[in-house]
């Protein structure tokens, strides 16, 4: 099942990149947005529960799909670009096997345990 979810993430990444190449707002902004989505990892400095909450909020499709819907539905075009960057980043992480985090720690995800703790 993990491999299926990784392939799904790869498909989301690929489709997001294709769509961004058509409706995006420049590749410099893409790179900045892509990297900025890991800023919530800093919340782990406040503890694993807060870190997991912040990471999961920024790596859930809910906000990304809301941006896509608003941007595609006549809202500011920047929302469409942000939604595409956001879905690409989530797809990238899922393709690598990185899932939503557990309050037990950063290595514990819905796709399994990361790193040497396996």
UniProtKB/TrEMBL annotation:
Q: Which keywords label this protein?
A: Membrane, Transmembrane, Transmembrane helix
Q: Which residues cross the membrane?
A: 29-47, 59-86
A Pfam family matched in the record = DUF4260
This one is known as DUF4260 family protein
């Amino acid at each position: 099942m993990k491999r299926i979810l990784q392939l799904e993430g790869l498909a989301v990444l690929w489709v997001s990149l294709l769509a961004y190449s058509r409706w995006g707002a420049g590749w410099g902004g893409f790179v900045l947005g892509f990297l900025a989505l890991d800023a919530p990892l800093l919340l782990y400095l406040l503890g694993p529960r807060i870190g997991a909450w912040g990471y999961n909020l920024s790596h859930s499709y809910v906000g990304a799909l809301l941006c896509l819907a608003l941007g595609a539905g006549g809202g500011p075009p920047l929302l469409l670009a942000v939604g595409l960057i956001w879905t690409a980043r989530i797809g990238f992480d899922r393709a690598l096997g990185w899932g939503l985090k557990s309050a037990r720690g950063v290595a514990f995800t819905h796709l399994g345990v990361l790193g040497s703790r396996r």
